[in-house]
Amino acid sequence: MTDRVYPSAKPNGTATAPNATATAANPAVATVKNQMYNPNRIPYRPTPTAYHRHNHRRCNCRRCFCMCCFWFILSILIILLLAAIAGAIFYVLYHPQRPAFSISSLKISQFNLTTTADDTTHLTAKLNLTLSTKNPNKKLIYNYNPISITALSNQVVLANGSFPGFTSSPNNITIIHSTLSMVSQVLDADSVSSLRSDLKRKAGLPVTLLIDTMVVVKMDKLKSKRVGIRVTCEGIHGPTPKGKAPAVASTSNAKCKVDLRVKILKWTF
């Protein structure tokens, strides 16, 4: 029998490597692998987004706001420190003191409670007041505006009066004479009851005086703004007059308190 020659299963030449076979079967794997292990590849750097830019701008605004607050508070503290130093220097140089007020005499020349046919009560009163004010300072001058005076008894207004403005020199005493009056003032039931009860007291009718004015303080060439002053005088008791002779009130225990009324914006302290 004649022998037949069969071709070989593998062609002549270089044998195919197993990796080459896998690469040919799946080219995507080879591409990914080459990119992953490529030493010359530039690293990925994401560009900043709008969110990061917004956060950066917010941080800058917050930093600017904090700096503005810091400088504002620091400026206020410096101003307060300078004001405290100026006040201390002024106090050492001038040693300012408040003016002193005292009641010299109070006479009740008229006091009538009249009830009419329509069951309303009217008050008619007249008081003669003499008080003194002293400037205890050695270098300060007080310029007073016109003074308003109100006499009360347990919050019930008895009479009103005034006195023109004047100047009080250093270590000077000024005597003030004023007539307070009330003509046929209608009172409510509570005020009438309070007055009738006070008139029965043995010590007499309790009287409180409220003195309101504005004052300007001068020192050498300097001059302050107008400052409000309220003087409250208590401890006065006086009987009502009998006949035409005025009744003299007791002022031996009277004490006057001076309060400064400083306005800040619309508030009074």
TrEMBL record:
Q: Which residues cross the membrane?
A: 64-94
- Signal peptide coordinates: none
GO terms for CC? membrane
In which compartments does the protein localize? Answer: Membrane
Keywords (alphabetical) are: Membrane, Transmembrane, Transmembrane helix
Main localization, broad class:
membrane
Which residue ranges does the record annotate as region Disordered? 1-22
**Highest taxon of source:** Eukaryota
Q: Which InterPro entries does the record associate with it?
A: NDR1-like
Give the matching PANTHER family.
LATE EMBRYOGENESIS ABUNDANT (LEA) HYDROXYPROLINE-RICH GLYCOPROTEIN FAMILY, LATE EMBRYOGENESIS ABUNDANT PROTEIN LEA-2 SUBGROUP DOMAIN-CONTAINING PROTEIN
Name of the protein in question:
NDR1/HIN1-like protein 13
Gene of this entry = LOC107789596
